[in-house]
Design goal:
Blueprint: H1 2-31, E1 36-52, E2 55-70, H2 88-117, E3 126-127, H3 132-135, E4 143-147, E5 150-151, H4 155-164, E6 170-176, E7 179-185, E8 188-190, E9 195-197, E10 200-201, H5 211-237, H6 249-263, H7 268-290, H8 298-311, H9 317-347
Helix pairs in contact: 1-2, 1-6, 1-7, 2-5, 2-7, 2-8, 4-5, 5-7, 6-7, 6-9
């Protein structure tokens, strides 16, 4: 029974994210006068479907991904409502709407999570003896305001900074009794934790917020996960991570299962909250990844459109199609590789 629940939770999360992403394309496309031939959840053969307003809505056999097929995507530019015949800014808005809706979903879900559990404020609960923070004079109760000029909104911002800037000295601005102070601290490597630390710990409990603060910190939450994704890609490019560290659908399903197992002893309410929190991470991650300027991704399509908007010259459908096909082939190979790694990690 537990395995069935984990699988259902995974597909529920995945479906919500995909519907939101493809729904953004579909909604703005229709608003821009672009015809939508099919809006589908999943890939492969159609299991069920119906047609309304000239658009076929369907569920496919393979429960991975989704598609929003516009008029003219088959190369028929003469068809009414063809994507390529729409104005360039209408097309830009339509393509960008998918990733943007992922961020909107992340914000909405964050409101529920933060209103329920609160925020990990950057107020220190303790300072570790013998570590750089103690030597710099920091005390429990101090609030970290910024590190190296980067504003700190939640305690996780500090953890992210030390992961990206390993061992780098930084000016730390903190607040004590309403007054601001600053000092320079160099994180030290802590063998037991396996990473660099300033030598202090965050709040023992999350702090509840009023409604306006909930909205503010929900935006902070979305920003945090966007930044985590971007910084992780940067660390991948610098060799601190490898492609073996990437997770595909199988790996994500395993993470969903682990979160479920860790949460179920606390009751259904906390399972629900943790699944919402995981969805925030995944939808923000998908939004960023889709904006990468790579062929076959929304970001690659946006790159073509932005070039067209600036130069007022449109690349031929054939040229764009060939580049997109090459990009899609690369992404399929990468996905197969990642899924293979996911499966190998499971059987080890």
């Amino acid at each position: 029974m537990g395995t069935v629940i984990k699988i259902l939770l995974f597909f529920l999360i995945f479906t919500v994210i995909v519907v939101c992403h493809e729904g953004g394309h579909c909604l703005i496309g229709k608003k821009s006068g672009i015809g939508v031939r099919e809006f589908a959840i999943g890939l492969g053969p159609t299991l069920i479907g119906f047609t309304k307003g000239g658009t076929k809505y369907s569920i496919k056999a393979l429960p991975f991904g989704g598609i929003c097929i516009f008029e003219g995507d088959d190369g028929d530019e003469a068809s009414e409502g063809s994507f390529r015949n729409a104005g360039v800014w209408q097309r830009i808005a339509t393509v960008a709407a998918g990733p943007m809706m992922n961020f909107v979903l992340a914000f909405v879900l964050s409101v529920f999570v933060i209103a329920s559990i609160g925020v990990d404020t950057p107020v220190l609960s303790s300072v570790m003896q013998g570590f750089p923070a103690e030597k710099a004079g920091l005390l429990a109760g101090d609030e970290i305001v910024s590190i190296a000029g980067r504003r700190i909104s939640v305690y996780r911002d500090i953890t992210l900074w030390t992961m990206v800037h390993e061992g780098e000295p930084a000016e730390v601005v903190y607040r004590r009794d309403g007054e601001l102070y600053s000092t320079v601290i160099t994180p030290e490597y802590y063998e037991e934790a396996g990473r660099f630390l300033f030598g202090f710990t965050g709040p023992m409990e999350y702090v509840k917020m009023n409604p306006l603060q909930v909205l503010r910190y929900s935006a902070v939450e979305v920003r945090y996960w966007i930044e985590v994704t971007i910084k992780s890609l940067g660390m991948l490019g610098r060799g601190k991570y490898s492609v073996n560290d990437l997770a595909g659908p199988v790996g994500v399903a395993q993470i969903v299962g682990e979160v479920y197992e860790d949460s179920k002893s606390d009751g259904a309410y906390y399972v629900w909250l943790n699944m919402l929190n995981l969805t925030v991470l995944l939808t923000a991650d998908l939004g960023v990844m889709n904006l990468l300027p790579l062929p076959a991704l929304d970001g690659g399509r946006l790159l073509f459109l932005l070039i067209e908007a600036v130069t007022r010259k449109r690349p031929s459908a054939r040229t764009e199609g060939i580049i997109t096909l090459i990009g899609a082939s690369f992404l399929v190979m990468l996905m197969v590789f990642v899924m293979f790694n996911d499966i190998m990690r499971l059987v080890r």
